[in-house]
Amino acid sequence: MRIIGGDRRGRQLQAPPGGVTRPTADRVRQALFDMVLHASWGGRDAVEGVAVLDGFAGTGALGLEALSRGAASCAFFERDRAALTALRANITACRKEDVSRVFAGDILAPPKAVHRCGLIFLDPPYDRGLPVLALNALTARGWIAPDALIIVETAKDEAPPVDNVEILFERAHGPARLWGWRAGGHG
């Protein structure tokens, strides 16, 4: 597993041992960032200079990819100890300590926001209804900017993670499905 693009392109990332953490594959991250950077609803402004939140961060691959591609900062949420060790090592290996903040705890009970984030990644354990719970908690604590781009990974066969919003994209990649929409539900 490695960073695909940007100023840290090629940097190897660690993953914790065992199967608890399920890192987003390199090819899936490549497809995701290509889509975001080239879509009419995205573009460079969707990433560059934006505060990012990587929820259920695991290795931090999504947030670190965004930082490598010019995001201003990233708040990483992770509670698994082995994943936290790998996450912190990956932030250091990418030399992104000055623009990263790790929250070692449950994203379903986040602290009050340090700033609003314009790009949100959620890659929770599959089939547990966690995206909606996390989004509700993050919204209540002020983490999500009004027009933030929200990207959620689910199992391929899971239902959409939210109702009553305009889905900007939905793509299956192997056993995973990526969904994207804007906070507030408009495209």
UniProtKB/TrEMBL annotation:
**Which PANTHER family does the entry link to?**
METHYLTRANSFERASE (PTHR43542)
Q: Residue spans with biased composition (Basic and acidic residues)?
A: 1-10
Gene name for this UniProt entry: rsmD
Q: Which NCBIfam families match?
A: 16S rRNA (guanine(966)-N(2))-methyltransferase RsmD (TIGR00095)
Enzyme class comes to: transferase
- Specify the protein name: 16S rRNA (Guanine(966)-N(2))-methyltransferase RsmD
- Annotated region Disordered: the residues are 1-21
Annotated InterPro entries: RNA_MeTrfase_RsmD, SAM-dependent_MTases_sf
Q: Which GO terms describe its molecular function?
A: 16S rRNA (guanine(966)-N(2))-methyltransferase activity
E.C. numbers: 2.1.1.171
Hydrolase as UniProt keyword: no
Write out the entry's keywords from A to Z. Methyltransferase, Transferase
Q: Which domain of life is it from?
A: Bacteria
Gene3D superfamilies assigned to the protein according to its UniProt record, in alphabetical order: Vaccinia Virus protein VP39
